[in-house]
Design a protein that fits this description.
By secondary structure, this protein is of the alpha+beta class. It has one domain: Thiol Ester Dehydrase, Chain A (Roll). The chain contains five helices and ten strands; from the N terminus they run H-E-H-E-E-E-E-E-H-H-H-E-E-E-E. The protein starts with a helix and ends with a strand.
Length: 279
């Protein structure tokens, strides 16, 4: 590991947020839900990602729309970064309308080599508390990679052979991507700037947010949980999903009582894998 990045391990920051019902209502409308949780009801799993996000001046953004490097996260000298996956424990409910805090700590910085060159993985531990009680514990993996030259074909994702017991289709239009970017204050241009996504990052079109897909998978788990809340959820992004290309959320129960979930791209390839357990 480069000693230049070791000094970031152990670095912490804390953000406090009011889990305001107006944001929750906007998220429910974005997901086209018939009803939004009201104040006092539990915040749905995944919706905590609407809050605690860094707010920086536009002049302090990098060319990709993310905050410039070298603040809380290490200034890794690779141009592309993405949220690769997370492991979450839902310890206790957080009520809509509550004030909560999230403390983030960098626990690992690791260098690897992938099919297309160097990769750096940064693992961040998030602990969300409300009224002095730990409610959510998450480990988040952020990956940094080299730029993909324009016109380079994407590495084909493996087909997913698992048979679902239930599932539904998602239609990711530009409005969905725009609203989710706005709700999470996510300036990453791959989600709304088509020219940038194509000519700078080498994607064929706008990219669906990984945490949006993970939130939808958690919603699917709840729909088939017989009223039970989630206790654990983990996901891993495998391949990108794109605007205007309908994808499916699928899953089935596992023998150990957990739920196996995944998002399948239009060509049948695995886009995201996940598991969930209930309280």
């Amino acid at each position: 590991m480069s000693t230049a990045y070791e000094q970031w391990i152990g670095r912490e920051e804390t953000h406090t947020a009011h889990l305001h019902s107006s944001v929750v209502n906007a998220m429910a409308a974005t997901l086209d839900l018939p009803r939004a949780p009201v104040e006092g009801e539990p915040l749905p799993p995944g919706w905590q990602w609407l809050f605690f996000n860094p707010v920086v001046r536009r002049s302090a953004l990098g060319s990709d729309g993310h905050p410039e490097r070298g603040g809380f996260l290490p200034p890794i000298a690779l141009p592309r970064r993405m949220w690769a996956g997370s492991r979450l424990d839902y310890v206790a409910d957080i009520a809509v309308g509550a004030f909560a805090s999230r403390t983030s700590r960098i626990v690992k910085v690791e260098n690897k080599t992938g099919k297309r060159g160097a990769l750096w993985f940064v693992t961040v531990a998030h602990t969300t508390t409300c009224d002095g009680e730990v409610c959510i514990v998450e480990e988040q993996d952020i990956v940094y990679r080299e730029a993909t030259p324009p016109g380079t074909p994407l590495v084909p994702a493996p087909p997913h052979e698992d048979e679902p017991q239930w599932g539904r289709v998602v239609e990711p239009d530009t409005t969905l991507l725009f609203r989710y970017s706005a709700l999470t204050f996510n300036g990453h241009r791959i989600h709304y700037d088509q020219d940038y996504a194509r000519h700078e990052e080498g994607y064929p079109d706008l990219v669906v947010h990984g945490p949006l897909t993970a939130t939808l998978l958690q919603q699917l788990a709840l729909e088939h949980g017989q009223g039970r809340a989630l206790s654990r959820f983990s996901f891993r992004g495998v391949s990108p999903l794109f605007v205007g290309k309908n994808f499916t959320l699928e899953g089935h129960p596992a023998e150990d009582g957990s739920v196996v979930l995944w998002a399948r791209a239009p060509d049948g390839a695995l886009a995201m894998s996940a598991t969930a357990t209930y309280r």
